[in-house]
Amino acid sequence: MPNSLVSVSTALKNPEFLNAVTLIASDIASCRFKNFPPYIKILDIPNNLISSYNFWQSAYAQLLLTGNSYLLISRDKNNLPIKLEQIPTSQVQINLSDDSQELTYTINFDDNRHNIEVPSSEMIHLRLMCTGEGDNALNRFVGVSPLESLANTLRVTDNSDRLTLKQLEKAILPSNIITLPIQTNSKVKDEVRNEFEAQYTGDNAGSTIVMDNSATLSQLQINADVAKFLNAIDADAGRIATAFGIPASYLSPNKSDNQSNVSQIQSLYVNSLTRYIDPIVSELRMKLQLPTLELDINQAIDRDGSQLINNIAKLTAGQTPVLTQQQALNLLTKRGVFTEDELKI
Question: What is the pLDDT of residue 1?
Fold first, then answer.
């Protein structure tokens, strides 16, 4: 299996990259599964050691970071799936048969189970784009992470951060300068400094400074080049947003998108989520044999129901509304915007 060009631990130290992974994984984990009987428990409660939300958030984060996420299926005596176990990518080896007709997975457990080999039907393998590039035939079955396209960007950011820290260290100078009219030794200088700080720092900070003719007070300003470094700290947010296919403003408040319309930006983000949701749903449909399974994205993009309210308002307006008042109330109640008790008079 190919190795990422940048380690995950290194990438997660970048705030924009961490923000992108957390944003996408959390929003998809907020989506609700639909049309999945009789496997209600395995998707709503996939594992008894961790909550459903955290389980799926972790699985999706692994998918974004490595391009692959492995979920081992456990079955009961009736061969029905009852539990999913997330397997770290470092513990999974993919095996392709000589005739390229069968795929198996060797799992190197770090507990008393040691090594086991399972068929493809018992492993939910979530993967992003499989390019099939290279001489290794397994590349047709292994996903590619956006992290690989950000190798140079993250290296540049790391070097830029180190240079910025060096500049800041050199720029940390005393803010005040007291000039004495005579040549003095270090002892006198220490006495003048200590007396000045005792009078105008601590509880006296901000009070009026009074100087006599024997000394003058001036202040140092931070170098303009250092300020430029500080303004460029989030310069790579745009590239990271591009790699993940989301609007840059979702990662950095200082970044502006070409679209000034908030709804257009949100629509772009929703469309971006589908590129991650579709391979997830497709794999679950195949391995759990649920051809009508869906992920309801509304919970992730419209948590307070404001978009639904706006859409219903348009459909109930005018002389010939598409929806009746009762139909509108039913939709709002079904989505949880209002409860039945709140609608009672």
Answer: 40
Range 285-306 average pLDDT: 81
Q: How many residues does the chain have?
A: 345
| Highest-scoring range by mean pLDDT, 82-86, 183-187, 306-310 | 82-86
Cα separation, 339 vs 58, whole angstroms: 32
Give the separation between CA 227 and CA 51, rounded to whole angstroms: 45
Q: Break the chain into its structural domains and give their ranges.
A: 1-171+221-301, 174-219, 304-345
Contact 276, 129 (CB under 8 A): no
292-318 exposure pattern, b = at least 16 Cβ within 10 A, e = fewer:
ebbbebeebebeebeebbeebeeeeee
Q: How many CB atoms lie within 10 A of CB 26?
A: 15
b/e burial code for range 270-291 (CB count within 10 A of at least 16 → b): bebbeebbebbbebbbebbebe
- 16 within 8 A of 251, measured Cβ to Cβ: yes
Tally of CB atoms within 10 A around 259:
14
List all residues 6 or more positions away from 21 whose beta carbon is below 8 Å from its beta carbon: 12, 61, 64, 65
State how far the Cα of 128 lies from the Cα of 122, in Å rounded to an integer: 19
- Whole-model pTM? 0.71
241-260 pLDDT, tens digit per residue, is 888 888 887 776 655 555 45
**CA dist., res. 189 & res. 179, Å (int):** 10
How far from the centroid of its chain's Cα atoms is residue 122's Cα? 29
Q: How far apart are CA 283 and CA 291, in angstroms?
A: 10
Q: How far apart are CA 189 and CA 94, in angstroms?
A: 72
176-179 and 216-219 beta bridge pairing = antiparallel
